[in-house]
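Now read this:
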Amino acid sequence: MQIAGHDVLLPVGRSHHPNITIVRTILGDDGKSLIIFLKDTTYVDDPRLEFFSAGFLAVCDRVQGERFYVAHVYHEWFMMAPNG
């Protein structure tokens, strides 16, 4: 999957790709690592719950000698609406 101009291998099937929205990316360690905050609404049936149940964090490292990244951490996180 192309994320922020980088090829990234996430632990999800290709069928998820249209449902993934990138929230934020952080490139670190001189381009050797990539942190991605994303939403994957593949399994969210009720759009009202999307904001609370579709967040994931992916920690990726670039494969040595290659141009692509592989996620070695893929963890669900819960987004909360700001009080306001």
